[in-house]
Amino acid sequence: MIQVEKEDNLTFETGIQELEQIVQQLEKGSLPLQEALTAFKRGVELSQFCQAELTQAEETVTLMMTQSGLKELDEDQA
């Protein structure tokens, strides 16, 4: 599994923005092979980073809801 190191200025939002730019470049098909492979690798790293950030945010929200009792209310209404 490839992992991107947490860069000081890398946030979920900047990661998504960079990933979108990479996708656009790759979709154009104008990059030389080596550059396309490098861009693809970076895209995979960014995708994994952003997924990890989303998972962490989801866990934080779930924990906060559980601690405040909202999780129990939500399950009772289902």
Note the total helix count: 3
Helical content (DSSP H or I, runs of 4+): over 70%
Report the biggest beta sheet as strand number plus sense, adding barrel if it closes.
none
| CATH architecture assignment name | Orthogonal Bundle
Distance between the termini: 37 Å
What would CATH call the class? Mainly Alpha
CA radius of gyration is: 18 Å
Q: Which fold does the CATH topology refer to?
A: Helix Hairpins
* Percent in strands: under 5%
| The number of domains | 1
Number of strands: 0
Give the class from helix and strand content and strand pairing: mainly alpha
**CATH homologous superfamily title:** Exonuclease VII, small subunit
Mean pLDDT: 88
Order of helices and strands: HHH
**Weakly predicted, low-confidence segments:** none
Question: What is the global morphology?
Answer: elongated
Question: Could you explain the architecture of this structure?
Answer:
The protein is mostly helical and 78 residues long. The protein has one domain (12-77): Orthogonal Bundle (Helix Hairpins), CATH 1.10.287.1040. The chain is built from 3 helices and no strands. The protein has helices at 12-28, 33-68, 70-77. Helix 1 (12-28) packs antiparallel against helix 2 (33-68). The longest helix is centred in the middle third of the chain and has 36 residues, at 33-68. The radius of gyration is 18 Å and the shape is elongated. The mean pLDDT is 88.
Quick summary:
With 78 residues, the protein is mainly alpha-helical. It has one domain (12-77): Orthogonal Bundle (Helix Hairpins), CATH 1.10.287.1040.
